[in-house]
Write a structure and sequence with these properties.
This protein has about 650 residues and is of the alpha+beta class. It has 3 domains: about 35 residues; about 325 residues, Chondroitin AC/alginate lyase (Glycosyltransferase, Alpha/alpha barrel), CATH 1.50.10.100; about 260 residues, Beta-galactosidase, Chain A, domain 5, CATH 2.70.98. It has 17 helices and 24 strands. The strands form 6 sheets. Strands 10, 13, 14, 15, 16, 17, 18, 19, 20 and 21 form a 10-stranded antiparallel β-sheet that branches. Strands 5-6-7-8-9 form a 5-stranded antiparallel β-sheet, with helices on one face. β6 and β7 form a beta hairpin. The termini are far apart. The N terminus is likely disordered. Keywords: Lyase, Periplasm, Signal. InterPro entries: Chondroitin_lyas, Hepar_II_III_C, Hepar_II_III_N. It comes from Halogeometricum salsisoli. It is found in: Periplasm.
Length: about 650
Amino acid sequence: MSGDGSSSRRFADVRTLSLLFRTVSNMKPRQLAGVADRKLRHAVVPALPVDFDARYDRRVPDDLSCTPGPLRANTTVLRRSLSGADRSAFRARAAEATDGEATFLDRTIRVEGPDGVGWHDEAVYEPPALWALKFHGFEFLRGAYLGHDDPTDCPAATETFPRWLADWQADESTNIGTEAYLRRAWTPHSVSFRLLNAARYYAWLGADERHPALAARLQRLLYRNASFLSNHVEHDIGGNHLIENGIALVVAGLLVDDAGDPWVDAGVEVLVDAADQFLADGGHFELSPMYHVLTLTRYLTALDLLRRYGRTPPSEIRAAAERGTAFLRAIAPPDRRLPLLNDSVHGESLSLRACLRYASAVGVDPGPSATTAMPDSGYYWLGRGDDALLVDAGGIGPPHLPAHSHNDQFSVLLWVDGRSVLTDTGTYEYAPTDRRQHTRSVAAHNTVQYGDVEPIDIAGSYLMGRRFDPRVRHGVVDGVTAFDGAYRRVGNDAYAHRRRIYAADDWWLVWDRVTADEARPVRSRLHVDPDVAVDGAADTGAAGLGFRTDGDADPLAYLYSLEAAETTVGTSPYFPSFLTEVERPSVTLRSSGADVSFGFLLSKRPYETVALERDGADPRALSLDGTDRSLPDLDRLS
């Protein structure tokens, strides 16, 4: 047994190294140079007999001044874009700070005691690492400026937070150049958050007029952090990190008079260069709706603030904001909640509704969307209005940045009567745990799996192996909306998967074919919203299951298995926010072989009999209670 375990571990290590090599080989030269630079600084700087913190401190001019009015106005617009419930939650976070506590990622820690704030306490650095990043990014300040209109209504704003900021600046463990500084207090991503939060807090508080001593402290903090960030832009990571760096430099530079101009220029340059992260259809190239909202919010802020401070926004920033907003309208589901595709959760970005309100308030409003195809991002709607099915048919994110992508090829999400029925899985954490592996795996998505094979190999927190580009067609044929997608996995455990979907007024037919050299089990999984129960009420017919919500006399929708050898109902985990796990129903259709075809019908109404006529593996007609519906030839799709 010990020998088997050792062999397994060696195999896992070899496999991980292989995926690491493939990931690194896809990285851009500037990324690799940034990685080398970061590692060199991290290893060398703490060992040098130089006080780098004092060096940055000496750069701060004695005559700093700020213009907070435009930033205060933008913060008001942002706050008013939130729902009442969101603002109430922010107020609760600010209130708990008066008791010495901070909450991020649904985890609360007592951070202040008799000896001050424990910036480097052991609890701060317990998983997930994102908790410490937010804490050192002063995310606790958001509860004040996003929860309250008037600072005098927030005791933490004028009592607790000034004390915490003074403690930060007096604590030598938070100095630049200390051991592990680039992985702790001075992680550039955290510095970006710190700049944004400190700047908004300064402007909202009216620090210049009401709290001059605090204003002076904040001005020095802003200058030191912006100077540091301008020397540590995250070209090694790229993606949404770059956009966070860019907006932080823009906000700090606009707030700080004159001395901040170089930061504005540097931040604008970063945002202009990163604008091509928004694809032609407007989706952010990491293919996560959560990161789409996070990055879009930054471009909307840059657009609004540059105008408010009397500057002309570059066309690239304006275009990215407009494309990104149009995409968000296009992907908005019937319940107007963010679909948790790829690495997405609720609560870490603005809600979908709040982001659209913010966009409209800063002058970006493309109007209602009738778009059903977002081919660059790989999302396709079959049905619109209150009854809609969304197909995730995109490839993996950019080759040099697969970090937030999942094995969700041709996964489907369903809404009926405006309510979620079939969901994605969300994300529990980013650490390389079993939960992380599950959320990225094909088993966590509403699609087909051949044997125990992952379509694309995954390992660690973010590694992915050899990829493929799915072939997709989508459109309307003979009055039926249709989707046709296919991909082929090559190498070991090779197989091919083709998924065809047909949609009429009140039903969706999903048909899968898997072909391989070796016969193995083939499973099609459907993960159900946790607020929906799965039952087999008599009126659904012998092969039917009902999706029912509390208080509804009849099911919202029905599921009919078509030619699967077995259909079972179980449960699966759902991660709607970080560190939150909810049990929900799931349905698995199962068959086996080397050439397997089966599928299912989703319907708003019950049927006594459901049958499929096919020509080989190709569906030809659907019979519902004896009434035949011809299915179009999908080769006619463009």
